[in-house]
Design brief:
Helix content is about 20%, strand content about 25%. The chain is built from 2 helices and 9 strands. A hairpin with a 4-residue loop joins strand 6 and strand 7.
């Protein structure tokens, strides 16, 4: 064999070997490494704190029932127990229903009610009759004729001018 030809064959063989080695290195997963007694494993990151620390946030106080009622806003402020000021009728509102003492229940969101009259005043309608208009404490009743005494303006009220109901929150 000619020396140049042997040299060329050896070069081709070496190139093929290097190429195969490079391909094998790319496809084989790395061998697991072992740690020696002097090497420490890498620690896991600290977990993310999900609750606020006591240093950054004061404990929340539980509101009283009166504070809870006054915190309700919008049309849902009507939810709760009510009685006519003369004691003749009591009922429970839990939107979308009103339930009377006899157990009868009616939807009070009929005809797309409640209707917002501003100042926290909302009017509620059943299918055939109005429940009345909810007035938060401090807002004077509109159209009230004093037939049941003075307007108890310091209390939340439901006024129904059609049947004379003036209910206060219990």
């Amino acid at each position: 064999m000619h020396p140049n030809r042997a040299f060329a064959t050896a070069g081709i063989a070496l190139t093929a070997l290097l190429t195969l080695s490079a391909c094998a290195a790319e496809s084989d997963p790395p061998a697991p490494s072992s740690t020696t007694a002097t090497e420490a494993p890498i620690p896991a990151p600290d977990p993310i704190e999900t609750e606020p620390s006591a240093e950054t946030e004061a404990p929340a106080e539980t509101p009283s029932p009166a504070e809870t009622e006054s915190q309700e806003s919008g049309s849902e402020a009507v939810n709760g127990s009510w009685c006519d000021v003369d004691g003749s009728t009591c009922f429970e509102v839990e939107l979308p229903d009103v339930t009377y003492e006899d157990g009868s229940t009616y939807d009070i969101t009929a005809h797309d009610s409640p209707w917002d009259h501003g100042n926290g005043v909302y009017e509620y309608a059943m299918i055939d009759a109005p429940l009345g208009t909810y007035y938060p404490a401090g807002v004077p009743l509109e159209g009230y004729d004093d037939s049941k005494g003075a307007d108890p303006i310091d209390e939340d009220r439901i006024w129904n001018s059609q049947n004379g109901l003036l209910a206060v929150r219990q």
